[in-house]
Amino acid sequence: MKKHIVAEISYEFAFAVINLYKFLSTEKKEFVLSKQLLRNGTAIRALIREAEHAQSKKDFLHKINIALKEANETEYWIDLLKDSFYISAIEHFDFSQKIKELLRLLISIVKSTKQSLSMDKSLPTVNYQLSIAL
Question: What is the pLDDT of residue 2?
């Protein structure tokens, strides 16, 4: 089965975040911001993985929305790390491009899932009953 692009990109991003965390904690001795980045940046893929096995479209949408929130918060931590001079402008640019791509993909998934859910609601429901003639 072919993996979805958002799954691949979010996994690669999580891996890059882990490496950045290692660098920040060992080389820069920065533990607070980097730990937040690690939590949020790796949670994105974990939530996408959960969404892959959602019990319903609503459950899927809920999990993807949480992944979107984590991605948004991750972008904040990346900006804060640059503004506090823990990462360079080049590192910031690289991570910003990656998280913006993830944000675009997640927003697109949320929009299309919401559309799909609204279309499902507009379809007439049929109540099937088994009738037994005596």
Answer: 45
**Number of other residues whose CB lies within 10 A of the CB of residue 11:** 16
**Residue 108 is encoded by which pair of tokens?**
């697109």
The count of other CB atoms within 10 Å of the CB of residue 20 is 21
Give the list of residues 6+ apart from residue 46 with CB closer than 8 angstroms, or none: none
Q: What are phi and psi of 2, to 5 degrees?
A: -75, 130
The distance in angstroms from the start CA to the end CA of the chain is: 50
What's residue 122's pLDDT?
65
Tell me the whole-structure pTM to 2 decimals: 0.86
Cα 3 to Cα 10, 11, 49, 52, 63, distances in angstroms: 11, 11, 11, 10, 18
Give the C-alpha separation, 6 to 11, whole Å: 8
In degrees, to the nearest 5, what angle opens at C-alpha 66 toward C-alphas 60 and 67? 90
